[in-house]
TrEMBL record:
Keywords: Kelch repeat, Membrane, Repeat, Transmembrane, Transmembrane helix. It comes from Adineta ricciae. This is Uncharacterized protein. The keyword Membrane applies. InterPro entries: Gal_Oxase/kelch_b-propeller, Gal_Oxidase_central_sf, Kelch-typ_b-propeller, Kelch_1. The keyword Membrane applies. It holds the Pfam family Kelch_1. Signal peptide: none annotated.
Amino acid sequence: MYKSSQSLDTLVSKDNSQSKWWRNSQYRTIFIFLTIILALLIIILSLMLKYMVFAPMKPETIVTTIPDGTHQWKWSATHKNMNVGRKFHTASVLKNGKVLVIGGFYHDILNSVELYDPLKDSWSSAISMTYGRYMHTASLLTDGTVLVIGGNDGYTGQNSTELYDPSTETWTTVDSMNHGRIKHTASVLKNGKVLVTGGKHGDDYHRSAELYDSSTKGWTSAGYMSDARVEHTATMLNNGKILLTGGHNLRALNTAELYDPSTGIWTTTGSMNHARYSHTASLLTNGKVLVAGGLNSNGALDSAELYDPSTEIWTTTANMNYTRWYATASVLANGNVMVTGGANDHVLNTVELYDPSVQTWTTVHNMNGARHLHTASVLKNDMVIVIGGRNSDITLNTAEFYSLV
Ligand SMILES: *[C@@H]1O[C@H](CO)[C@@H](O)[C@H](O)[C@H]1NC(C)=O
Ligand SMILES: *[C@@H]1O[C@H](CO)[C@@H](O)[C@H](O)[C@H]1NC(C)=O
């Protein structure tokens, strides 16, 4: 009896213990299941809050991100390449932010046009020009259209001019210049007209200049420079005058001259310390003009000079670390000037930044590929995109951009 009662007791107490709900395996399973469901709900809810409620309130941090050791400025290839390699082409940043890449030379002159969309990192074809051309110019006019002027037609400098309208994505042929030109300059003046200077037609080095008027879509003479100039530079100063520097007409030039749009008069100004052509010229935020590199009878140059419009005097500034010609120079939003690529006895992938406040050059991250005869355009957020050009023997269809990654 005792024995059985004890065993019953044990049994009862065992039953009792089993009746505590958390010791019941069925309830335990349900409890764990509910806990998991609850945890999942909390995770889903927090994700929804993060993406639907908090995310839109986060400011765009691309520009404001400070390099902190983990982020740095680097060159990255665009997702895809252009359809065709191009050198001596042009690249214009349109008002909608896209980059219009026009013509150039591959195995033959190109009339094809491609558009790069920085937001989608994608290339698309645009309608071709009527005339193929390289060594032409392309100017973004105040109404957002792009005026393409002259360039080599495969034989000599052509006089044809075409206008691209981004809103309709179409080309219209407008009046031709009075002279065919390659390696000329084109500057959009403050009054909206376009000043074209110099360049070459056959063996003629032009001293002439012409003005394009958007309202008549026609050309008039803009007088004569003191020197014929090819592969020179033209920079608009803050006072609206155009500064022409260097170039060549069988010999390299150190001379410079000014065009005043309000009077239509040309005047000579201070000469550079070095003759140079195929160099770069950039208007700095302090109003001075920086010229860098180029070529003369001594070869490629690393020298750089500053023009002060108030004194009309050139002063030398620090040399670049590399001699280079047919490089590009871009003024960044912070006022620094970025020089990319170019060539000396070989094609360069090096990149240097000029800081006007301390007047020094700093070598920064190299491009992935060496290139000259390329273009460089400043995009939003201080990104710079370099497009096409030539490596030692290859005409490039690649593009790469410099951005904070
Ligand atoms: C432009 O060049 C073409 C071809 O050389 C020529 O026929 C035409 O007359 C020129 N136009 C002007 C306005 O000079
Ligand atoms: C300058 O260029 C030389 C080669 O010409 C190179 O060895 C050196 O590292 C460069 N200096 C900087 C600061 O990039």
